[in-house]
Amino acid sequence: MQTLKRIWRSRGTVEGGGNSRGTLPRTLNQPGTQMMRIISVIPLLLVWMISPASAQDTETAPVRSPSATPMPIPDDDDGPDADAPKEKAQAQKPAEKTAPPAAKSDVQLQDNPPPRYTVKRGDTLWGISGRFLKNPWKWPEVWGMNKDEVKNPHLIYPGDVIILDLSGATARLRLEGVSDGGLSRWYGYQLQVSKMEPRMRSKMLGRMGIPAIPAKEIGPFLNRPLVIDPDSVARSPQIVATTQDRVVLSAPDIAYATGLDEKQGNYWNLYRPGRTFRDPESGEILGYEAVYLGDAQVESFGEVSTVRIVQAIQEVGNGDRLTVMPPVQSLPYIPRAPERNIRGKVMAGTGTSVSEIAPLSVIVLNRGKRDGVEMGHVLGLYRSEGAVTVGDRRVPLPELEYGIVFVFRVFDKMSYALVMQSKQQVNLNDVVKNP
Asked: Which of 249, 263, 338, 390 has its CA 20 to 30 A from that of 311?
């Protein structure tokens, strides 16, 4: 009953326009008005009787003024303390769910990476990234690049300053003085954040971006025939005669060839079948090496066509073959690990390599497009140091990674890769697989 009196006073204060003594306006002293006030208090009294545990809080809970609509009974979840102070409501509110933490990046920084580096002529993206990262093929990830949207990865120039940003959860490489850190260059446009001047424009046209990997090491392998399918050798055009019965031809000598198709154009490569590439695991013939001899231009087509030797790096003679010049490769080299598991072997080196192959040398792998290999894939070099006897069996020792190769040209059954890093000489039959 004491609680009812307190509620009565509280309601009187509210209805009385803030009268601290709880006196009622004269119009509320009428008998009808007093009956309405008594009826409006009954729901609150019932709630107080049902929930005795909350009776102690009723004294401090404000009571709403009567309205034309009936006062609803509070829900069980809210209780009579629904209008309690905000601090109390927030204390009782369950903690909101937070997003799970991002997956930890496997990018590994060097032990003492420099905070900044100025690009110099002769640098490569791989080499610069190696100053900051232990796994430099991860440089697209550290730049925050989307490899599917990259238009040209060579738009970093000598004089650019690269900074290592450690302010976020993940380390980032950025270009100093560029608002977006240089991402606009990767995606084929460049943000203009400074005043444009003709002098600055002329300098930009004269600059050459640094390559992703050493260009001079792979240049001879990019736009020349390297591998000829066994069936293609027999069908390829062939030199059948020379002028004045010459045995050896060079530029600008004339030769005669059969099998040339005018629809395939006037410019052809000269080659000679070389080594047979045989899979060291299955024994399958994957192709024949095409030993590049030079270039020729067709002067007239016919059953026997006339060709002129325009370039010769080796002697050309009767029986040598011709193949259409491959298109110039201009795709960006974006290093990345394969999305599927790939395992193969080092099948061969370049023409002069026999067994041991040095870093920054080209190697031939027994895996190609049909196996999921793509240009830009980074594979690890692995070798087992032998086997040990366990019981009555010989068990090979675990394979240890000792280097990294970068795939730069892919054929259907095989591919060519550049040895980027190696702690030792590469041997034939060493294993290549996901790093």
From this structure: 263
